[in-house]
Specification:
By secondary structure, the chain is an alpha/beta fold. The protein is built from five helices and eight strands; from the N terminus they run E-H-E-H-E-H-E-H-E-E-E-E-H. The strands form three sheets. Strands 2-1-3 form a three-stranded parallel β-sheet, with helices on both faces.
């Protein structure tokens, strides 16, 4: 892996850093990697430039606008790679439209729903009814992922780059910290995804 020329971290309205941005800025400082700061609006309006070799760290919109400055785009979102289907432990399917999901909800089916195109058009959730306001005005013709509802007791995030598991961290407000995931299962998932040629760089 190459050492970046610097990192550009997203700041909030009050100038503070989020949890992950703070961790990345601290790690960069330890490794003598320059740390630059900018708000989402500054990057969106190109008031702050993103030099080549600098890695953007922040929300999906922040990274997306930073990549656009470099003439790049985020990869297509693929939250449920086919190669990892046996690890999902629930039925997941892609519906052609949000309207189809709403019809199922109207019939009393309980579903977890999240967008299938675009990043974070609305945050995935379990709707209470078909016109739940948390759909955030999303188009009824947009495709969505739906799955059976499950209860997660602990949430962790695995950091992976170039098919190498770098770290596994507990997510704030992610349930029970005392229930960590099986690292061997994560390693196997990384290997499976890598061999399927469907793995992104990170």
């Amino acid at each position: 892996m190459h050492t970046p020329a610097g990192i550009l971290v997203e700041i909030k309205g009050n100038g503070a850093l989020g949890r992950e941005e703070t961790l990345m800025a601290s790690l960069a400082a330890q490794r003598h990697i320059p740390v630059h700061r900018a708000s989402l609006k500054q990057i969106e309006r190109a008031r702050v430039g993103v030099p080549p070799g600098v890695v953007a760290v922040g929300s999906v919109p922040f990274v997306n606008h930073a990549l656009r400055q470099l003439g790049r785009m985020l990869p297509d979102a693929e939250p449920y790679p086919l190669a990892l289907a046996p690890l999902l432990h629930r039925r997941v399917r892609k519906l052609r439209t949000l309207q189809e999901a709403r019809r199922l909800l109207a019939l009393g089916e309980r579903l977890f729903v999240k967008p299938a195109v675009g990043w974070k058009r609305f945050t995935g959730f379990v709707p209470e009814f078909e016109d739940d306001p948390r759909f955030n005005g999303a188009s009824g013709s947009a495709p969505v992922w739906v799955s059976e509802v499950v209860r997660f007791v602990s949430e962790w995030r695995a950091y992976i780059a170039n098919d190498t598991l770098l770290d596994v961290r507990f997510v704030d407000h992610g349930g029970d910290r005392g229930l960590p995931p099986d690292r061997a299962v994560i390693e196997k998932a990384v290997q499976t995804l890598s061999s399927s040629k469907a793995a992104p760089a990170g």
